[in-house]
Structure formats: C-alpha cells, structure tokens
C-alpha cells in the first residue's frame, strides 16, 4: 500500500503548508455560532462587500481590523466613530496576528488568494467574497428573532439560502402574531415573539405617509392598537379587521385617571400575550406622555420599545414653508408647551429667558394662552415686529396657515377662527423662504 493510501482522512487537515490554496472537497458545511465578542476579526477590503459585512461583525461585538487603502463613506464613518481600527494600506501577513476569523472582501483574485493562503497557514477560517469554493467558511443568510438566530446555508447558492431564510422569517413572524394557533413547544422556544410586548410608536404629524418605516411595520404586526386623538385616521383605516382598536381619546375620567387607564390597558393586553402598539401623534416623547407609559410597562415587567416619530414641532412648520433653522438667520430652535399660561404657578417654562433668545420659538398647545404668551414675550423684550406664523392641522388636507407678527398674532388667530391642533412659530425663519414657497 502506498503512503497515500494509509493516511487516515483526519490527517488531511494536519498537512502543513503544502495544502495551501488547494481546493478542498466541498462536503457539508459544519454550522457553528461564532461568539466574536471582544475577539479580533480581520476584514480585508474597503468597498461595498466590506460595507455590508462589517455591521454584523460589530453587532456581534467583534473587534474589527479593517485593512484597505481606501474606504467607502459608510466604513469611514465607523472608523471616525471609533468602532473599528483601520490600517490604510494593503494586506500584510502580520495583520493575521491574533485574529480569529478573516473576511476577504476584495475583487482582485490574486490578492484575495494571498490573504486566504496566509490565513490557511495559520489555521484561521477565511470567508471569501470573490470565490466561495476557495473559502474555508461561508456566511449564511440570517434572520433574528429576539434571542433566536436562524442561519441558512444554501449549498453554494446564495439566492437559495436567501429564499429559504425569507420563508422561515415569514413563518416565525406568523408564529409571533398568532401564538395560540401554533405549536406550544415552538412558541415556548421563541419567547420574544410569543410573549406580549408593547411598542410606543410615533405616528407623525398628520399626513399618514409621515410614519416611519419601522412604525408602519409594527403597526401591521399589532394585535392591539391604542391610538391618540391626533393619530392620522387613515393609518387606522388600514388595520386588519381582527386588530383590537382602543381609542384613547374616548376614555372617560379626567386626564390623570385616563392616563392610568391607558397604562393599565397596555400592561393587561401585553400580559395576555398580545403585541400592543401604542400609537401617538408626532413623536412619543414630545409632550406625549410616552415616558410615563414606558415606565408603567417597565414596572410591570412588560418589554417595551420606542419608535420615534416625525414631530409636528419641526414637520408642521416645514410643510408650511418654514425651516426651523436657516443659515445666517437662526442657530437655535426651542420647542415649548403653551398649555399652561405663563403666570400659572405650575408652569415650568422660563418665558422671560425665552424672550431674550434670538432664535426660533415653536409653541405647541399654545392657542388658548396665545395672548398671554405673546404679551409675556414682549414684556421681556422680544420685538413686537418679530415674524409669527400659526399652522393649524399641518401636513393634512385641512392645513391652514396664518402669518403675522408677535404683536398681532393673538388677535389675528382669534379673528381667523383658528383652532387646535396648531403650531405657533416665532422668529425670522417665518419669512426666510417667502410666501411663494408654500404649496
Ligand atoms: N407628540 C406630538 C405633540 C403632542 S402635543 C408631536 O411630536 O408632534 C399636541 C400638540 O402638537 C398640538 O396641540 C399642536 O400644538 C401640535 N400638533 C400636533 N399635530 C399637529 C398638526 N398636524 N398641526 C399642527 N399642530 C399639531
């Protein structure tokens, strides 16, 4: 028998540099979950492939050494933020010192081969974007559901792995939505999708298209939606018919009791296993009591996430042709609530200090007290000729805009019969784009 014939298959991997660069028989991949937190990973290349690969490595907590003469702007942003180390040059053998994994993300096959051969010499696994047959590791298509990660290897065909991954993702989302219909063992294995939770979602200022992509996705996944008065009706029109819709504005009792009642509904429904979306006008944390709801859920042990929204304080002026800042005009904007009169002992707003600011002042919930607010600002020195605008029901088909001055705006609003919800804007930015810009 020849020497070759007597060698055990397990010797294959122990052969030293002579097997460098050799095409290994493909076999079945052996799946592993690499725990990369705090471990060095080398990424060679600074182009589109590296840009796609780096975020998942950072997400896994890996320490990333990026070796490339040039970077895409997205990679440069990671470097600038100190999230990874960048060696601005071509690959050198010593780049492999101490690394656990290599990602080769360069097109040049000769250079890529040099990196993977060096990695093979050191027995470091190497993913190659340019040539999966030459790679010693493959990256799977991935979907994550809370603590569960599903990784799919498609036997060499990335389209196949992505298609299977998408099918599994769809299936797991269904399990999350209908926990009672699915196999209890499966539901048990996916605690984060099965058990109830709450999302505080900003619905935007009025135009139903101004919700965020994430907010919209969660809304389509909700079992229960608890909506505010200011939430665009069209968003609610599109909910599935089996979704329970709670209109928070119709809850009786005074505001304090009503808030307690909303908190109770959020916690109860989530504890019963539902995914509850608390949909709030604008951004949940801008005069929206979102913080109280988050604390109530947290105190009850209910997982809660926040999805910020487009706030009316910026978006409503914008759509009415008023930028809240403008170069050379305003370097600041201040958003205040006018729901309490300036002389109300419960007011937390320092109107005298606001009167001294030169920048833009945006007042929400300010119509009722507008006369007192403008008088106070004038009394503390803000010029009566300061441009002012009031936008009612901004970003909707019913939007009304009134332009005036600090001295006259309160009377003008009364004469025009403007009603809440309205945003009041004070400052030079009101006239900076001119009336023609408004559509
Ligand atoms: N969280 C909301 C604000 C809630 S306070 C946000 O981020 O937008 C409610 C106040 O917001 C209203 O009284 C009004 O001042 C303002 N507002 C909300 N939507 C508005 C709209 N479409 N047009 C004008 N003002 C609006």
UniProtKB/TrEMBL annotation:
Involved pathway(s): Porphyrin-containing compound metabolism; siroheme biosynthesis; sirohydrochlorin from precorrin-2: step 1/1
Compositional bias segments (type: Basic and acidic residues): 1-23
Residue ranges annotated for the Tetrapyrrole methylase domain, each copy included: 198-409
Catalytic residues (positions): 228 (proton acceptor), 250 (proton donor)
Catalysed reactions listed for this entry: precorrin-2 + NAD(+) = sirohydrochlorin + NADH + 2 H(+)
MF (Gene Ontology): NAD binding; precorrin-2 dehydrogenase activity; sirohydrochlorin ferrochelatase activity; uroporphyrin-III C-methyltransferase activity
Residue segments, region Disordered: 1-27
InterPro entries: 4pyrrol_Mease (IPR000878), 4pyrrol_Methylase_sf (IPR035996), 4pyrrole_Mease_sub1 (IPR014777), 4pyrrole_Mease_sub2 (IPR014776), CobA/CysG_C (IPR006366), NAD(P)-bd_dom_sf (IPR036291), Siro_Cobalamin_biosynth (IPR050161), Sirohaem_synth (IPR012409)
PROSITE patterns assigned to the protein according to its UniProt record, in alphabetical order: SUMT_1
EC assignment: 1.3.1.76, 2.1.1.107, 4.99.1.4
UniProt name for this protein: Uroporphyrin-III C-methyltransferase/precorrin-2 dehydrogenase/sirohydrochlorin ferrochelatase
Biological classification of the source: Bacteria, Bacillati, Actinomycetota, Actinomycetes, Micromonosporales
């Amino acid at each position: 028998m020849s020497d070759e014939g007597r060698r055990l298959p397990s010797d294959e991997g122990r052969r030293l540099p002579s097997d460098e660069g050799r095409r290994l028989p493909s076999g079945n991949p052996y799946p592993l979950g690499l725990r990369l937190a705090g471990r060095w990973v080398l990424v060679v290349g600074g182009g589109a492939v590296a840009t796609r690969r780096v975020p998942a490595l950072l997400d896994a907590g890996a320490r990333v050494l990026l070796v490339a003469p040039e970077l895409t702007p997205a990679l440069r942003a990671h470097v600038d933020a100190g999230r990874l180390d960048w060696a601005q040059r071509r690959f050198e053998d010593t780049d492999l010192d101490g690394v656990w994994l290599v990602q080769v993300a360069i097109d040049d096959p000769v250079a890529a081969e040099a990196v993977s051969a060096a990695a093979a010499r050191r027995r470091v696994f190497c993913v190659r974007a340019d040539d999966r047959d030459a790679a010693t590791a493959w990256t799977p298509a991935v979907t994550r559901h809370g603590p569960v990660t599903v990784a799919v290897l498609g036997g060499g065909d990335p389209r196949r792995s992505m298609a299977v991954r998408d099918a599994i993702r769809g299936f797991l989302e269904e399990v999350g939505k209908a926990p009672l219909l699915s196999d209890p063992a499966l539901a048990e294995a996916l605690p984060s999708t099965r058990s109830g939770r709450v999302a505080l979602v900003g619905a935007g200022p009025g135009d139903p298209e101004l919700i965020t992509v994430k907010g919209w996705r969660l809304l389509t996944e909700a079992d229960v939606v608890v909506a505010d008065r200011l939430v665009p009706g069209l968003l609610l029109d599109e909910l599935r018919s089996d979704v329970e819709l709670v209109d928070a504005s119709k809850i009786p009792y005074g505001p304090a009791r009503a808030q307690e009642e909303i908190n109770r509904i959020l916690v109860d429904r989530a504890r019963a296993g539902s995914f509850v979306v608390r949909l709030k006008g604008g951004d949940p944390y801008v005069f929206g009591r979102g913080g109280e709801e988050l604390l109530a859920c947290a105190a009850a042990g209910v997982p809660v996430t926040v999805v910020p929204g487009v706030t009316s304080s910026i978006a409503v002026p914008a759509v009415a042709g008023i930028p809240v800042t403008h170069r050379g005009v305003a370097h600041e904007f201040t958003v205040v609530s006018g729901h309490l009169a300036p002389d109300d002992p419960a007011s937390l707003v320092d109107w005298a200090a606001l009167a001294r600011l030169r920048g833009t002042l945006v007042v929400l919930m300010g119509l009722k007290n507008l006369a007192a607010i403008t008088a106070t600002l004038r009394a503390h020195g803000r010029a009566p000729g300061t441009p002012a605008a009031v936008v009612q029901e901004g970003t909707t088909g019913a939007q009304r805009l009134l332009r005036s001055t600090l001295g006259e705006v309160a009377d003008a609003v009364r004469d025009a019969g403007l009603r809440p919800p309205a945003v009041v804007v004070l400052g030079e930015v009101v006239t900076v784009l001119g009336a023609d810009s408004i559509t």
